[in-house]
Amino acid sequence: MKMENEYFLTGKIHEECGVFGVYHVSSAASLSYFGLHALQHRGQEAAGIATSDGKQITCIKGKGLITEVFNNETINKMDGIHAIGHVRYSTDGGNEIENVQPIMVRAHTGHFGAVHNGQIVNASELKEDLENQGSIFQGSSDSEIMLHLIQREAGTFVEKIMGACRKMEGAFAFIIMTKDCMYAVRDKNGLRPLSLAFLEDGYCISSETCAFDIVGAKFIRDIEPGEVVRIASDGVKSFHYTQEVQHKMCAMEYIYFARPDSSIEGINVHTSRRHAGMLLAQSDDVEADIVIGVPDSSLSAAIGYSEASGLPYEIGLIKNRYVGRTFIQPTQQQRERGVRMKLSAISSIVSGKRVVMVDDSIVRGTTSRRIVQLLKDAGATEVHVRIASAPFSSPCFYGVDTSTYEELISARMGVDELCTYINADTLKFMTIEQMREAIPTRDLCVSCFSGQYPTALFSFQKVIKKK
Amino acid sequence: MKMENEYFLTGKIHEECGVFGVYHVSSAASLSYFGLHALQHRGQEAAGIATSDGKQITCIKGKGLITEVFNNETINKMDGIHAIGHVRYSTDGGNEIENVQPIMVRAHTGHFGAVHNGQIVNASELKEDLENQGSIFQGSSDSEIMLHLIQREAGTFVEKIMGACRKMEGAFAFIIMTKDCMYAVRDKNGLRPLSLAFLEDGYCISSETCAFDIVGAKFIRDIEPGEVVRIASDGVKSFHYTQEVQHKMCAMEYIYFARPDSSIEGINVHTSRRHAGMLLAQSDDVEADIVIGVPDSSLSAAIGYSEASGLPYEIGLIKNRYVGRTFIQPTQQQRERGVRMKLSAISSIVSGKRVVMVDDSIVRGTTSRRIVQLLKDAGATEVHVRIASAPFSSPCFYGVDTSTYEELISARMGVDELCTYINADTLKFMTIEQMREAIPTRDLCVSCFSGQYPTALFSFQKVIKKK
Amino acid sequence: MKMENEYFLTGKIHEECGVFGVYHVSSAASLSYFGLHALQHRGQEAAGIATSDGKQITCIKGKGLITEVFNNETINKMDGIHAIGHVRYSTDGGNEIENVQPIMVRAHTGHFGAVHNGQIVNASELKEDLENQGSIFQGSSDSEIMLHLIQREAGTFVEKIMGACRKMEGAFAFIIMTKDCMYAVRDKNGLRPLSLAFLEDGYCISSETCAFDIVGAKFIRDIEPGEVVRIASDGVKSFHYTQEVQHKMCAMEYIYFARPDSSIEGINVHTSRRHAGMLLAQSDDVEADIVIGVPDSSLSAAIGYSEASGLPYEIGLIKNRYVGRTFIQPTQQQRERGVRMKLSAISSIVSGKRVVMVDDSIVRGTTSRRIVQLLKDAGATEVHVRIASAPFSSPCFYGVDTSTYEELISARMGVDELCTYINADTLKFMTIEQMREAIPTRDLCVSCFSGQYPTALFSFQKVIKKK
Amino acid sequence: MKMENEYFLTGKIHEECGVFGVYHVSSAASLSYFGLHALQHRGQEAAGIATSDGKQITCIKGKGLITEVFNNETINKMDGIHAIGHVRYSTDGGNEIENVQPIMVRAHTGHFGAVHNGQIVNASELKEDLENQGSIFQGSSDSEIMLHLIQREAGTFVEKIMGACRKMEGAFAFIIMTKDCMYAVRDKNGLRPLSLAFLEDGYCISSETCAFDIVGAKFIRDIEPGEVVRIASDGVKSFHYTQEVQHKMCAMEYIYFARPDSSIEGINVHTSRRHAGMLLAQSDDVEADIVIGVPDSSLSAAIGYSEASGLPYEIGLIKNRYVGRTFIQPTQQQRERGVRMKLSAISSIVSGKRVVMVDDSIVRGTTSRRIVQLLKDAGATEVHVRIASAPFSSPCFYGVDTSTYEELISARMGVDELCTYINADTLKFMTIEQMREAIPTRDLCVSCFSGQYPTALFSFQKVIKKK
Lengths: 467, 467, 467, 467
Known about the structure:
- The structure is a homotetramer.
- Chain A is an alpha+beta fold.
- Helix content of chain A is 31%, strand content 25%.
- The longest helix of chain A has 14 residues, at 269-282.
- The two termini of chain A are 31 Å apart.
- Chains A, B, C, D: The active site is at residue 17.
């Protein structure tokens, strides 16, 4: 749950979007607003909602938080009983308005539009192919590719979607809306989450179940890998565009991205993190006085560590809730003199203590080093860093913003070297096996820890080779 | 740590301001920005900074968060080595721009200005008296009264301030700035906090010590009740305007207002809350499965309760971080259908569990009722509410926004009745004695729990009588 | 020269865009900003600029005036020596962000983009055809069609453009930019203006020559009907995609749209209006005391009328300069009581006078009626309305926002009836022959006066038939 | 009628405010909005409205145009049947929010507030005296002084106002509002305009009569010099606070500030300007081809010149209507290459012509020089500058922003030298006698032309002496 510029503040990685849809409900726009608000942690740079009143589709979108893009006036303008919406995180090169979703197709045969979470690994290949056939691309989002593929497929609309899905490789969770139908789609490896729920007399689709709770929807089930769910006036129908499916849910969803109150494939995120913390403690024998977590995403693991280790759980770090986009940054000189905006250490808690500091992951290492320093400045005598996941040593090509080895410190350093770098007294990670134990789903994608990718990588292959 | 409209969302009470000052530092404006940012939880409706370059005073202020009122351009415009700043919460009737602080006096003998936290109980009497002598008031803030009193006193500037202080009854912490001096002032009962620190080659003054940590200042000491501290080019000097002093620090600062990483009169806020939670548990014999806290202010007490009771501490409630001022509210119908924006219960944690829910206080009771319902909807079999303070049964006239008995549910209901009202299985409060044990400072103001006020109440006396 | 909501205030028609481009100049973005600022009267609802530094294209666009979409920060971000820009007026149904221009194609073979003024009359036919071949359309702008056509043509880039042009029927002036080339294109009937100039060591292209003056460019020549001008590092080259050309410049450009300081096809706009006023006077024998014009577009004609008639020219109507987009409107009751925001009559000028009121055109008649009333309320004894063009009796399909007969009062009423309707004492129009005399260009499109359209109308034909 | 940054663009002087009030009308806030909108040319930097519903006063104010400070929501919030409002131009040192008007006094005996146009010349003396008696000043506006004086006077409210007026020397037009009364006040020399009108069942007060036309009010009469008009539920009553009155209406109101459709002391502004142009022509024998005016304020004089001289009136200069506050400025290099934002010359009009260019006044000379150059660049063979007023050679201390001799070019140069400086072929001014002839009111203040001031100057005297 992060604000936009957190990456630069904390060195954390970013998820690249949340999707949400409602079908046949009253005030579809405002329910989407509430739902997207619950998914805001998945992307803070742009937001959009498209609604349909059964005849016509209206779309409003823009840069910023959902609360910045929409207000009462705009929400009220959007009549409709169906809606899809999107919150977006974007990398530097893709911050153009053309990439903000939903992306709409205004066709003489009927308008339709889509929202997307994930990353299509054969996007350049598909795009080049489509361009050679005469298509033009206004943005660089994968949604646009999906829409082009649909347009060029033959058959009924659901057949077109299935045809398009068969051409795309990678991680994707799409919601597609026509004026009177809605389609929920997941990739065949099940890399990105997408769930279905009842809402009023209709349905609700969301990247995370936490959005269901907020709008009062009742969870039905997850969309299956390789499945297209079609919701129309004649009810919900399921289509499978392939039989070659896996259940490679992204492990980072549990470890870092998802909200603790979400459940993914039946497993509550907080519970899995707490479990991870317990496992970390069980294989640990460090002598310490207190356990603290790095807020917010590591608090669950810290509680688990405390419970299993018997060491008291403490609030040793405070996060300032008012850091936002327009935030003025301290100058380098101010930073050196100790000006800190985001995290504070509670001196009276950590002073004179041997501290176990639990964090969810280490990406670049700079943040960990800064927090360790913060704790030592506040008087901690020892800082033992425990990471509730394995070393993040390989880039992700499925929707997480870490695309090179260079930016991953665990690709360059072993644990001992890294421990020295972050100035910790000791440093421990989990093993991949422990992670699987903490997250007892059918299967996980742990490629960023193992370097074993569940799909072909197409042009990204060269990143792997360059290493 | 609350956003503007939280009162309506949660029924919580509000602090009415934070003050901050720096003397003889480089980039005084941006350090004030960072300092006020750390105090943002004390007021989100308006903010302002006045700087002095030793010759001239510049003041910029406006409505909104500190990050909304200031940006790089405005901060850079404000040259100066001294600065005072303010964050403000305001009651409905006082939201005019005239009340936003700092309030400046542009006098032919030299400009000066002030920021204020607290409430002067003889404000109307003083104001009427001053008006009868020819003064005019543009706003309704107590700072304006202070400035008028200073102007009419005789002697050196510090003598004028001391004369003014002797006339004011109630709770106040002022920082006053002339073009080359700064004055920190506390009321004789010590009701509102104010502390002094070293910063670079100069000094820093703040309502809470958490702001010192953020700007890299080193705590020196608290300003004393009845003291005026004068900071000038010849150093720091202390003046006492009265000998009749008490140490009646507001108990609610520890219980609810202050940030957990602040220390007030040498006692860390988080530690006192944790202690309160332990005391609550020690006098409790409820049978339960887990302990949860209402985020954010009750987490410390919940941890303490968990530790003392041996019941596992859990994250059962999640707070949405992106709720802001411009937030669209669910309609009544949506609310009834379960649309909830602010807090979510984690069903997989609380379902089937007997839950001890720790909260810091109950004001109107509506929020507690809503949260209990949230937990029961999420499957909690029992909800035992434990409040880490005594029943809030009397209005506060010292800067907390609860000025009538009507809005205080504990003024109207006993504990059993209130337990039924909020639909809890059991409900327990602390005693005032336990509170004093948890907060071992010299003395506390517990008037909102006891109805015993440390000062005369002047025109507010009629509120008491009306009861 | 009109603000956004003027149509509703004055019943005037709207032009639908201005285009501007610079090639090989320093600070291309800020020169485009200045140029578009000079064209702001052609569209106030959205604006955008795309720049190229020879390697990469950057595009920023949004809703509002050019001064609202861009500021120093955004302009400075846009490096580049080439640029194209657009100001847009949009009809109600086309106000989506997808229609704001420039529209960019991000292709693996190189990015390119376009800006457009005009209206393609076979747009639906082309769009349907392209969709059937697999293209998708995100917006409803004609630029998007052009870009699709280009993409599907074969040959060099200029050949692709020429191929695309041959398929489009209607009115168009395009500027197309690749990373290192620029193309200026006009339709074969020459319905919309587009001119070329020298600027610094490079070139400048604009809808109107007034923009040349503002950026210091030196006029070279108009782009020819049916011509594609290619500007590249090897200089300017001309291509003609067809020989079947006409010179049907839109008469309304002279009468109403263009700025008086622009010259179109060598004829200054102010001079042609003045000439029209003189012709109006020469065929008139009304007895009156003064001549006034309706600001701003009719002042030139009023001066011409005054000169030819010998009647004194007076300032009888004042226009409020501060009416803007966010303007609060008077209620109906306030309007009836005489609350007027936009135009005021100077009573001391018109009181007791027989007034000749010169206006450029009558579209709905409501504005004329309101202004006549304004003058009579201010004491004018007679109001003789003289229109510096013929009756506007047929819809325009070439880029002017009047697409039905219903909204054109001259399609429903004769001159006498209209005179009664607007409550004038007498009413006279020009003849089409007089208009041609006032605007001595090679040929004019006068279809909105004559109902004779210079192109096939495709699906718009049914509007004509419905009449 | 100028935008904020016009001074820097054109070298023109600034008026310092417009005031407006309505008493006993429906929707007082929106009528004030419309009225202030008509007065916007008198100040574009800040605006405010205070309303009273007979019991309570509400005040909203801020920086920017009236359309920027208010929107439908804020206007609708302001219940009330009485209102006063203000538009403000401010000098650099006085741009603080404390100076934005109305300024309210919140007194235990009843709230009241004031708006002001003018300048009190003994302001520092009064302020120092008041401060010595214990008053504090938050801003530097003269309204605040007036409010302090009122507070300290004895008697009924109207007696307090009259007492205050007797103490103030200089130029002032105040509107003062209590919860149920309104007071209109002018200084004893009548330097600033203020008029009274009927509106609905109540009354309207305005700096200029053009605002009456816009809200549908019917002019009654001007407030007299030395008069206090009290409007209350028992009707309108007149009070005279002194018998030593003069009628020294500011000549610059006619020449430059006021809107042409306003009438001041019974004389229409446009008519007086036209008359001035005629007088200029009658004493002129220049041989020329055309007459042009510098838009907007000099068009009336140019028309008069044309009529009296027989030379044709032409539109030779066009002003861009979209220049606003946030406008990006051309760089020096761009400026040298001919980038011009504000004014354009129509080459086809002026090329090869001997031009008489009529302007209202010359302050710094830089603008005139720039415009002459513009015309010569556009091909004018001769430019004869005719100024419709006498040389502006002395500073104004009565509300016009020219407070030093240094900035007035006519204080330093004779006509011949100035003619050379602005690069005109010939240059002529009017005489003061001609100005009086053109503006046949009882008497005028022409101190900025004559150096003879109608009041004592107090501390401003030193400016005169320094010369």
